[in-house]
């Protein structure tokens, strides 16, 4: 399978037409973010590509295409579905998605790029002392944090916030999490879902999270994708974070398929 690197550190464009699924999955594990030009991809083909990597999910809260296509989420900026904070997908789940496949259907004339961060490279660049400190620490990840942010900035009422808190969609993950297929250690906290590090003082937790969140998104660990209609990006959620730049006017419409994580993920 022919590839072209997107950055010196991670990411690759798949140049071969109709890539072999096994080779595609291997390339995803190695490069963490893959770009395919797929202007003719149908929702059926989108789901089939996801299934070639693993079992695909019905997303926890995004709308989807409906009967028969429940695993194809619809991210439409006209409905406010623009994930403009750094995050790893659905880390509030005990077994978050191992991979995500997102395709551009409508893009604004300018803007709406997606940034990616290599969380394994970011971990490797930490000092030995910080690596020792993080070893064994766990952090809470909570879906209600999104509701808290919306309420804080006037996007929802107190009832919606209370419902989100009562739902208790939260779990703990290692702060320094080992990738199950590569063995690389990755920084596994993000500002969208991570609330605090368990077992340490609140001010200490805030300080460490602030440091890690700033560190992982440094320029040397990131890739910026400028979308074209028909682009399909596949990324390994166990080794990356991403965010959308909410710097555009006009509509930004994407279809998204996620591959379920397993116990070992």
Secondary-structure map with pairings?
Blueprint: E1 3-5, E2 12-14, H1 21-31, E3 33-37, H2 43-51, E4 73-76, E5 99-106, E6 114-118, H3 119-124, H4 128-134, E7 138-142, H5 144-152, H6 158-167, E8 170-174, E9 176-178, E10 185-187, E11 194-197, H7 202-216, E12 222-225, E13 231-236, E14 240-244, E15 253-259
Parallel strand pairs: 2-3
Antiparallel strand pairs: 1-2, 3-13, 4-15, 5-13, 5-15, 6-12, 6-14, 7-8, 7-11, 9-10
Helix pairs in contact: 5-6
Structural class of the secondary elements?
alpha+beta
CATH level-four homologous superfamily name of the largest domain: Clavaminate synthase-like
Overall mean pLDDT score?
93
Q: Which band does the percent of strand residues land in?
A: 25-35%
The number of strands is: 15
State the order of secondary-structure elements, H for helix, E for strand: EEHEHEEEHHEHHEEEEHEEEE
């Amino acid at each position: 399978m022919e590839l072209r690197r997107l950055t010196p550190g991670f990411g690759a464009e798949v140049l071969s037409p109709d890539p072999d699924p096994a080779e595609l999955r291997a390339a995803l594990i190695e490069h963490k973010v893959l770009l395919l030009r797929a202007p003719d991809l149908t929702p059926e083909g989108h789901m089939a590509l996801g299934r070639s990597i693993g079992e695909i999910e019905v997303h926890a809260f995004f709308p989807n295409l409906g009967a028969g296509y429940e695993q194809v989420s619809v991210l439409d900026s006209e409905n406010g579905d623009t994930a403009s904070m750094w995050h790893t997908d659905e880390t509030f789940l005990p077994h978050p998605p191992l991979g995500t496949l997102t395709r551009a259907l409508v893009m604004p004339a300018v803007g709406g790029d997606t940034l990616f961060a290599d969380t394994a490279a970011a971990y490797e660049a930490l000092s030995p002392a910080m690596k020792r400190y993080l070893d064994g620490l766990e952090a809470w990840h909570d879906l209600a944090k999104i509701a808290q942010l919306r309420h804080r900035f006037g996007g929802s009422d107190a009832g919606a916030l209370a419902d989100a808190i009562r739902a208790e969609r939260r779990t703990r993950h290692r702060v320094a999490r080992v990738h199950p297929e590569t063995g690389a250690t990755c920084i596994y906290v993000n500002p969208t879902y991570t609330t605090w590090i368990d077992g340490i003082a609140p001010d200490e937790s805030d300080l460490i999270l602030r440091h890690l969140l700033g560190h992982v998104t440094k320029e040397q660990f990131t890739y910026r994708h400028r979308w074209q209609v028909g682009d399909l990006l596949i990324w390994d959620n166990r080794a990356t974070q991403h965010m959308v730049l909410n710097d555009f006017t006009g509509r930004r419409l994407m279809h998204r398929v996620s591959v379920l994580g397993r116990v070992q993920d």
